[in-house]
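To assess whether ligand presence alters the predicted conformation, the chain was also submitted together with acetylphosphate. Input:
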Amino acid sequence: MSDLQLPSWKNLPPVKGMPHGCAWGLFDKEGIRDEVGTLNLLSPETVLKAREEIRAGTSVVLNWPIDHVHEPGFGRIKPVINITDWRAKGSSWYSYDDEISINTQSGSQWDGLRHWGHSGTGLYYNGIHHDELLQTDRIGTDHWSKRGGIVGRGVLLDYVAYAARHNIAYDPMSRHRITLDVLKAIAVEQGVTFRQGDILLVRSGWIRWYNEHSPEERIARVKNGSEYVGVDGSEEVVEWLWDSHFAAVGGDAIGWEAWPPQLPWCMHDFILALWGMPLGELWDLEALAAECERQQRWSFFLTSAPLNTPGGIASPPNAIAVF
Ligand code: UVW
């Protein structure tokens, strides 16, 4: 079967009351409202083609340790891991449990479709208003589980390596923008050509900065910071993302796009609210980048099994890249 035929950015049909570029309705089938947006592009044919990436037998986990970010910003709670010693509590068995409390936005995550509504209207993917969202479990991360998780071909664009090759000095804790011409130049230098349904990962250097700095510096620039490296929020990037027909996008940056977003080109608005596309943040791409260098290949088979949370907003990706 051939790829799903989608209109180009310029030909996206108008949606009443919404700006140009809204994909609501495109994935609806036989009058049934769609719940999973661009994940519809992960067809069985796309997955079967992606398995051709498995040639070396190596794999890399893309979740950062669950206690990172240690001291999150934006008022989010710190991750907590508590161990229960059942033996100490009088059990005759030798046994431990662990209890984990996290805000799903504080570490490696997929932003789900219930995380972010369009800034101008308060409408989430496929037209659900913010004030109605909690009365339904529609467009939750559990719908990703129901469809079989997120499986396809991952492609890494490594901006850290590109910046080093081209003597570009930048501070990941500033609103440094990775522009479209640079994304395209990285793809050329890495020998990457995209296919419909690819899962695009961008390594910005955010996590490398975090790994290299002290707890005090992290508190100053992350917990109390407000500007971060990321993909440029611009019309040309939005057009390119849509016309590439990615199934999902992600990366190591805290907001994926250069933060804070600037309207009208807030990538969260387009990616999550208008397209229904999962948006990955704070993925640990350090070992992945090293493996790509070793293999001299920036594409791989990717699996992700997000938490099966009813009405889920976001989830650790539980993603693995297989070479
Ligand atoms: C940030 O926290 C920067 O973005 P999000 O709310 O998408 O996690």
